[in-house]
Write a structure and sequence with these properties.
Blueprint (H helix, E strand, L loop, with lengths): L1 E6 L11 H4 L4 H15 L2 E6 L3 H14 L2 E5 L8 H9 L4 E5 L21 E4 L3 H15 L4
Parallel strand pairs: 1-2, 1-3, 3-4, 4-5
The structure holds 1,3,4-trihydroxy-5-OXO-cyclohexanecarboxylic acid.
The site of 1,3,4-trihydroxy-5-OXO-cyclohexanecarboxylic acid (DQA) has 10 residues, from loops.
Length: 146
């Protein structure tokens, strides 16, 4: 079982970026926690981060050929990207969207997710824990348990 974890723009700056909103945990620390969970679950994870929309779309296409499920934080593209929505729809594997923050408790324009409607589910507001729950969820979905 391979799970692709795809991170969008500005998430490379976690730890220093708006710590009042996103906390002080870095992407590297989140990735370490995901890798530890993967080991515990006996699965493989392929983690990436891209700042541009095209690279995120390429990563989704690649996951569609090589992975069993996708965990994606499209970050700022969440609220605008028809192209990432279409890419998620185009691949034959399930996806779960994650957010560190609770996007429904923030600015009105963050309340709409263009990308979550192409996913099986969405988990947000729990910081790094959102990713860990999403990995557990996608494994259950890919194994047909949910
Ligand atoms: C985010 C929420 C988005 O609205 C924002 O643009 C991000 C991070 C989150 O994880 O909380 O970059 O996806």
């Amino acid at each position: 079982m391979i799970v692709a974890v795809i991170n969008g723009p500005n998430l490379n700056l976690l730890g220093v970026r708006e710590p009042d909103v996103y906390g002080t945990v870095t992407l590297e620390q989140i990735n370490e926690r995901i890798e530890a969970l993967a080991e515990e679950l006996g699965i493989e994870v392929a983690i990436c981060q891209h700042n541009s929309e095209g690279e995120i779309i390429d990563a989704i296409h690649q996951a569609g050929c090589e992975a069993d499920g996708i965990v994606i934080n499209p970050a700022g593209y969440t609220h605008t990207s028809v192209a990432i929505h279409d890419a998620l729809k185009a691949v034959p594997i399930p996806a779960i969207e994650v957010h560190l923050s609770n996007i429904l408790a923030r600015e009105d324009w963050r309340h709409r997710s263009m990308t979550a409607i192409a996913c099986e589910g969405i988990i947000g507001g729990l910081g790094a824990e959102s990713y860990l729950l999403a990995v557990r969820g996608i494994v259950a979905l890919a194994e047909g348990q949910s």
